[in-house]
Amino acid sequence: MFLAKRYDMTCDIEIQVNPARSEWKRLVSRAQADDCVIAERVSSIIARVRCTGDEALKALAFEIDGVRLSDLEVSEAEVAEATTLISDGLKQAIGQAERNIRIFHEAQRFQPLEVSTSTGVRCVQRAVAIQRVGIYIPGGTAPLFSTVLMLAIPAKVAGCRQVVMCTPTDKHGKVSPAVLYAAKICGVDHIYKVGGAQAIAAMAYGTDTIEPVDKIFGPGNRYVTNAKEQVSRTVAIDMPAGPSEVMVLADETAIPDFVAADLLSQAEHGADSQVLMVCYAEEFAHRVALALRSQLDKLPRKDLASKAIGNSRFVVLQDEQECVDFANLYAAEHLIISMKNPWKVAERITAAGSVFIGNYSPESAGDYASGTNHTLPTSGWARSFSGVNTDSFVRKITYQELTREGIQTIGNTIVTMAEAEGLDAHAEAARIRMKETGNFSPKGKGTEN
Question: Is 334 known to be catalytic?
């Protein structure tokens, strides 16, 4: 095996041909940003919000975004106005997406579990909804109203008592009408005009207007991400997050134009996004690069996408198993399998946020309307985290009930194990009950069957 590093001049993307496995760790690495300055700034913002609450939120909105806010909560009148500003076509699209997302997440509802582990010993597990959750919806260059659907719907399906939302405004202090409309149809209880790290701090610690929540969900920029990490010592968060990413596994049955479109769908998120393609033939890689350049030139967000391409690469490997192994090492947020037998390949994928099967399953289907959730682990966290789902909004509580016969059945086991750990009070808690039932075995005299 040999290593050849080349560049495709049509789009200036790196192509690695048959890299040795010793090189794979470098090839799956993400760009590492130095967040020391950001962390310090975020820490200061969090401290201000904890100290002066609403006053800090309004001051920060003016300092950072130049927006003067009189009220932090979006009024019913503002939501009603937003509804009139949305086209019928967009309303219909949001409605279809909402139905599909709801169907998929309702199917995920946890069914109570009950089992008898021994005679007289009953164990139960039930799902209990998190009572109050906060969802963060980015504004910035692209107000992500689709993320409202992805977070509010499973929260409501799970039975969360209150869903509150924070999102930044435009320069005039207005929230995106599409974001407000999506929040309305999903049943969001409170909407606040707060963005950035200060929104995360407000949901974590509370202010006069915003009550603290039990868990925070949602994507955001590096400031939002860092704020979530900092407050996670106080409140639960959905998952660690980083820039968006996609990997495409392609063979000779893949369509270069489709592959290029999928790569650009993630590249346009931001300059720090990363897109990778893994294929069998260098000639195919050049065909995709040509399609990439042709489509890139037509994109309104061309400048952002071009910078992301600079963080990205194509990798040419020898066979299907190498492609699978490389994909599992990378653990992509989005993994598209455009190969002859995509489901057989998918069966061997052990690390990915969400998988898209075949030539006609664009990554954008999962972003918007197929029904799966688009809030997914990035930066390799797919090796240990799931994407957001209905389970993300519940806690599992276990119950156990021992009858008189049950304590007789496992009592000696409890006593023996507790004594072996040197925890005699634990042993006595079982021993005293066994004495009452008249089935006490002397200390250290074995266990039941």
Answer: yes
